Amino acid sequence: MTSFRIREAAALLSVSDDTVRRWIDAGQLPADTDASGRLVVQGTDLAAYLTRTATVPGDAGEHASSARNRFVGVVTDIVSDTVMSQVELRSGPHRVVSLMSTEAVRDLGLEVGSLATAIVKATNVIVETPRTERG
């Protein structure tokens, strides 16, 4: 199972290490101790927290890409059959759903609580605004 050290969880949540520790102390975010005695947050617990809050994780930005729409987050759900899978990722208030082969899910080692980045490259983007009356 994926686990995140306090510093890693804080970076994903775009808050300080101290804030994550306060949330843990207040019982808002569960934590465990790893084999080295360090405090860690399980990926599944982080996924549940991201699902119920609107905290925006930061983009690690470690790869060069022409795609500008990157959503770093935590996998919160996977629905698979023998051929295809639906993978849900939460990046702060954003829910991104990807359809991919079940083989790709296995190859990437995706599971609920995994850290992942959804990269969106589209030639057609629709922008909406609220309707206004024109006089």
UniProtKB/TrEMBL annotation:
Listed PROSITE patterns: MOP (PS51866)
Signal peptide: none
Pfam families to which the protein is assigned, alphabetical: HTH_17, TOBE
Record key words, sorted: Molybdenum
Domain Mop: 64-129
Coiled coil (residue ranges): none
InterPro entries found in the cross-reference section: DNA-bd_dom_put_sf (IPR009061), HTH_17 (IPR041657), Mo/tungstate-bd_C_term_dom (IPR008995), Mop_domain (IPR004606), SinI_DNA-bd (IPR010093), Transp-assoc_OB_typ1 (IPR005116)
NCBIfam families per record: excise (TIGR01764)
Protein name, UniProt field: TOBE domain-containing protein
Organism of derivation: Microbacterium istanbulense
